[in-house]
Amino acid sequence: MGEQIAAQCRLFLDGLCLGLLLGFVYDWLRLRRNLIRGGHIWMGIEDFFYCIFSGLMMFGLFYRDNSGVVRWFALAAAGIGFFLYRKGPSRIFLPGLTYLLTKAWELVKKPIIFLGRGLKNLHKSVTIKKSLVKTASDSKGRREREKIKNKIRKGREN
Q1: Any keyword Phosphoprotein (predicted)?
Q2: Spans of all domains in the chain
Q3: 80 burial class (0-12, 13-18, 19+ CB within 10 angstroms)?
Q4: CA distance linking residue 133 with residue 152, whole number of Å
Q5: 14-60: per-residue pLDDT in tens?
Q6: What is the pLDDT of residues 125-153, one digit of tens each?
Q7: CA distances for 23 relative to 76, 80, 96, angstroms
C-alpha cells in the first residue's frame, strides 16, 4: 500500500514538473512570436505542433510511470505546473529575454545593413556586362569592349 501511494506521489510530482517544462517550451514559442511577427495561420500551425508535443510528453509520462493508465490527478498536476510557471518565472523570463534579444538585434542590425549596402555597391562595380564575355573573333563584341574600356578610363581621369 505504501509503495502505491509513493508511486502516485511521484506521478503527481512528475506531472507538476512536466507542466513547468511545457510552460517553458510554450514561452519559447511566445518569444519567437514577440520577435518575429507571423500570421494567424502560422500561429495555428505552431500551436498544433505544440499540442502534439504536449500530448506525446503526457503519454510518455503515463507510459513510464503508470503503465499507460491515465490518472486525472497527474493531468491536473501538469495543468497546475503550467499555471505556476506562467504566474511565476514566465513573467520575468519572457519580457526580460524579449528585451535583451531586441537590444542585441539593435546593436547588430546597423553593421549588417552597412555591410549589405557596401556589398551591393561592390557588386555593382564588379558586374561584368554580357558584351565583355563575347569571343575575341566577334568584331562587334570587340568594339563593345573597347567602348566600355574607354568609358572606364574616362571615369578614372575625372
Answers
A1: no
A2: 2-127, 130-158
A3: middle
A4: 17
A5: 999 999 999 999 999 999 888 888 888 989 999 999 999 999 999 98
A6: 655 554 455 554 555 667 777 777 777 77
A7: 14, 10, 16
